Amino acid sequence: MSGIGSFVRIVGAFARKDFRVLRSYRVGFITGILATVYGLVSFRFVSHLVGDTKYFGSSSEYFRFVVIGVIVSGVMRASMVSTAVSARRDQVEGTLEILATQPISLMALGVGWAIVPIIEELLAGLITIAIAVPLGFNHITPNWPATVLVLILTAIMFIAIGFAAAALVLAIQQGTAAAGAAGAVMSLISGALFPISVLPGWLRIVADASPLTYALRAARTAIEHGGDTSRLIGQMLTLVAISAVLLPVGLLTMRLAFDYARTRGTLARF
Amino acid sequence: MVEDGIKAIEARNLSKSFKGRVVLRDASLTLPTGEALVLQGENGAGKTTLLRILSTVVRPDGGNARVAGFDLRREAPRVRTQIGVAFVNERSVYWRLSPRENLMLFAATRGVAAGDRRTQIDSIAAELGMTAFLDRRIGELSTGQRQRIMLARAGLGNPSVLLIDEPLRGLDEPGVEDTIAFIRRRLADGAAALIAAPTVTELRGRDFGLIRLLDGCLVPTAW
Questions:
Q1: Biggest alpha carbon distance in chain A?
Q2: Does residue A71 lie in a domain region?
Q3: Are residues A211 and A157 in contact, defined by beta-carbon separation less than 8 angstroms?
Q4: DSSP for A72-87?
Q5: How much is the pTM?
Q6: B67-91: per-residue pLDDT in tens?
Q7: Which of residues 170-209 of B touch A (CB under 8 A)?
Q8: With an 8 Å Cβ cutoff, are B59 and A263 in contact?
Q9: Are B48 and B5 in contact (CB under 8 A)?
Q10: ipTM score assigned to the predicted complex
């Protein structure tokens, strides 16, 4: 079977497995939706405090800003943290070692670890928009295909960082907290909940180095100014370029971590 | 299956230490295709380490091996296409799923074509007496039933070399006979099996070879 065929087969098998596991925890899905509703209603009220400032012309403008921030940050977390969390779960539950005996590529394993959380988060994004519209998420000119593409590119970009976090899990049985912390810092400094312009100057420089900054810019263009094709293409190409750099690095760290664990004989250790 | 003239396993001078404790010392063995070799040793003798090395999850410190003709160090991904592995670890299956759902996942990772997975799983389940509990959740099953699932998983995709750790552990009498028959059928089809076991009473008289692991060294032994 071809490399791509094999990749799709294995990722598909992981997806089916994780959907079955997810189905056995139905309450988690419902509480997730309730948390989304709670978060959006809270931000809607907060937006009334923010309107008509030098940053936002109205409360609705801030609400739009934050809804997009919440969606993109969710995709980032799902892609980056879930890879490490799934690796850790296989390590603790005892299935990692047997997976390491299977004829599967690291790319398929890594994407297989993250695919269901990413799909879940993309669905959560749709639900978020559906809930946000009656709360005041309007005055937008979305390009929905471009929005979906931006979110997929965001997932690819952050899954690469997730590979590095999974590598930490494989090598030293830790890494989920580091991935979570990195996600929290990026959400804070990249303009997810407030504009980068409110940050001190030195933090704005750090924000420029955060991949989330570019994902948020592209998502905001796709949803709020979907007709601005040239800007949109430029921003999406930036995401592609960042992914092209991060993916090989992420895969390399995972390979090195597997080698390290195989040499020390610690794949089964948790 | 392994090509004619190529040994299923050819290990030369394998050695492994963990934190200064020598587990394997110049371990060498040859296993022809169509044969099974029982690897006997006391608890902690290094049987599992040897199986883990041959199944590519532990790197040897010294020596090398060829599995189904592929170099363990340089061609590990190709070795993985040839082996079916069952470790002693009943946590190595997904407990929230059924045996069938577990086996469907691993049939995919083993490269079994989508259209053949169900048939192959049903066939192996019938061989190992698993049909009655194939769709129950793993968490509800007994140790012996879980043991059969791990063996069934090792047989998916018709591997050339079975690497099995303590396959009879926790099995009742019919389970023991089903397992032996399962291994024999694969030998008849041209596969080979390396079976680690601390005690060999139930494996005696089965036409399997025997090798003993003593102080990290492999010693050919008569039954």
A1: 60
A2: yes
A3: yes
A4: HHHHHHHHHHHHHHHH
A5: 0.91
A6: 999 999 999 999 999 999 999 888 8
A7: none
A8: yes
A9: no
A10: 0.94
